[in-house]
Amino acid sequence: MYIYRGMLRIIILCIILGTYSIVNAQSDLKFYGVKSHYGFIIAHTPDLKPISQTNPFGLQIEISKLKTSDKAWKTCFCYGKTGFAFAYFNYANPDVLGNSYNLIYFVEPYFIYQGPLKFSLRGSIGATYLDTIFDEETNPDNLLFSTNLSFYLALSLNLNYHFNNGYAINLTANYNHISNGGQKQPNKGMNFPTLSLGVDKVIGDYKLTPKPDELKKYSTSWNYYLGGFASLRSSDREAEASNHPLFGVLGGALKPLSRINGFNLGAELWYDWSDEKRAENEGINESAFSSAITAGHHFSVGNFYFLQQFGIYITHPETLQPNDVYQRYSFWYRIANRWTIGASLIAYGRVADHMDGRLIYILE
């Protein structure tokens, strides 16, 4: 699966910037929306060109809210809305690609909100059900999808015009991505930009005003973290095979540099039973144990963290995984006191390897 790192980074930043500003506030604005989609499929590898010459279209319905109190704004220093959507996409190739049904969570921070014209950036994440997937005998051409349940990501630029207090129209450019996170092959993943036209029904007094500078305060203290992570991986990356567990531990330090930016240092260790199985099947005498040191940048706003790290292996099965360096993208959310849950994606260049779930304890 090919990963567009800049897109993923901006999506998670939007989630960080937008979500916490919509909780713990007093006044709600509610939005009910509907929009249409029309676009095209990007053939990001040559073998995808025969099945990518179509124009997907779809319909999306959504509900969202925006809160405007100082307390809500202070935690991310922005206005924004968050909500849920259901989107149907028809890929105009029923025999090979079929349709998808997507349940989506989104956040949408505003950058321009003067007068009736508003400009915003939306990050979306969710789950998708694909009704037509790869089958070696009946559908060998579908190299994009191999599991009915997959992940959905999108980044959207929105131009909103509020022509009265109750209704708004919007024109949106979307970059959509669907894949299963490297859990099963083949998994090229689909990247399909769409253009949307929609209308929103707004309930509430929609007036956004700049907030005072004294609300913008942040801590520069070091934070330290310990945690564990786990995943399931196939023992054969190119075919159907049983899944095997991966378990690991991690630790490190976070240093704020500004209100939302900081750098981090850490280390992580893990054991991958799918690599153990691969080594057994291929007659390779290598350990499935990996260890690495990490360093990178992170966004930290309220209860949310997004870490972008480079990892350098200390030990790893070199025949099974010849790369010495990897990228890791992690999203954490603090659920109670110092406990944090999250997810992480490890990638080599533009190719994603696998995702995992994380439980983190932050020491302040």
UniProtKB/TrEMBL annotation:
InterPro entries: Lipid-A_deacylase-rel
One Pfam family cited in the UniProt record for this chain: PagL
Name the record gives this protein: Lipid A 3-O-deacylase (PagL)
Native organism: Aquimarina spongiae
